[in-house]
Please model this.
Amino acid sequence: MSVWNPDNIKDVAESIGIASLNDDVLQALSSDIEYRLSQVLEEALKFMRHSRRMTLSTQDIAQALRVLDIEPLYGYESTRPLRFGEASIGPGQPLFYVEDEEVDFEKLINAPLPKVPREISLTAHWLAVEGVQPSIPQNPTPADSRSQELVPKGPGANPNLAAISGSDNITVKPLVKHVLSKELQLYFANVCSAVLDENNDEYRVAALASIRTDPGLHQLVPYFVNFIAEKVTHSLKNLFVLTQTMQLTSALLDNKHLYVDPYVGSIVPPVLTCLVGRHLGSSPDPLAHYPLRNVAAALLGSICRKFAKSSHTLKPRLARTCLKHFLDPTKPLGASYGGIIGLQAIGGTEVVRALILPNVKEYESLIREPLEDDGSPKKAEAEAVLTVLVGLLQTLEDDALEMMKGLQNGEGESQRERLEEKVGSLVAGRVLQMGRPKFIKALLEA
Model:
């Protein structure tokens, strides 16, 4: 006995011109229709379950019909729920139909146009570089990661429990996904302690030599970069620690087996801090921090030579920073010294000619007063700045120039005036005392 009503089959048969059907035929057709409907529903339920839904939709029925090689029904692809109306065509014969929504053309015409959709575009970004997730807008921030850890998990979890349960049982996963082996962890701890060991020079030299040549330190590079940044940030009063961190940075850059390009943006700030920092160290000697600035300048020049091709904006940004500290009258003389030697390290003679030489005369006013005052505590620093200025200007000397003549004759005074107009009286006097005609001509022609 079929659950499908044979009267429905009889109505369809009459609508296509078949006046009468045998009862056995109606029963057979009812059973077949019931089988076909159950087959379609079973396939549709498969689509519903694979879509992780609990409600059967018209799209599931359409997909099931396509799978069974049956022409799908058209006109039922709307995502809105269908509203059925009921009409009676006779006693006990209800007719259900889909109600059509009435549309007011006047409202439709006067309605504002929808926003133009944005064009589809694709952008590429680094999800992770050597196991480390870059801090870019496309990637989740550490705060997002921590908030996800605090969300209660499970179907019966109460979201309010996270706020009242405290943080005793909360664990925050590290951003670095790879796990270091115990050997690498031990190596990292020993190297860090050796580099900062002030009493054992041999131990310290061996650690730096290992970093400079060892080919198996790829996983430790982000840890060393973070160690350098942390020590420079928290040890600005300790010249030994700052110097050793610069030595550690130099060793990392000298290791030809390591790929350091992704970490240049994190390496440069500690180097700049040691180069143009306002107050470095706590020694009473005003010149104690100048060797550290020289090391940082050499390291900055090495970074520019190695990574300028892969980062076209690296040199201009560094030169802009050094020039700002060179010309800023509010900066101490140590920062100005760092800016001067940093400019020379970044671009060599061309930067000296283009950025330092035109500003020497203007900068002279900043060091004239401490140089002329014998009791000034800044005199030693001003003397160091003047010395390095003259030393950098010597790089403009061209060995191929012919010897100048007449400096001891009538042209001497005119040459002095032209030189003072070019670089100021302090630097001009120091240059003339050196007695190097080729150097003087190089400055006048630069």
Observations:
- The longest strand covers residues 84-88.
- The first helix runs from residue 6 to 15.
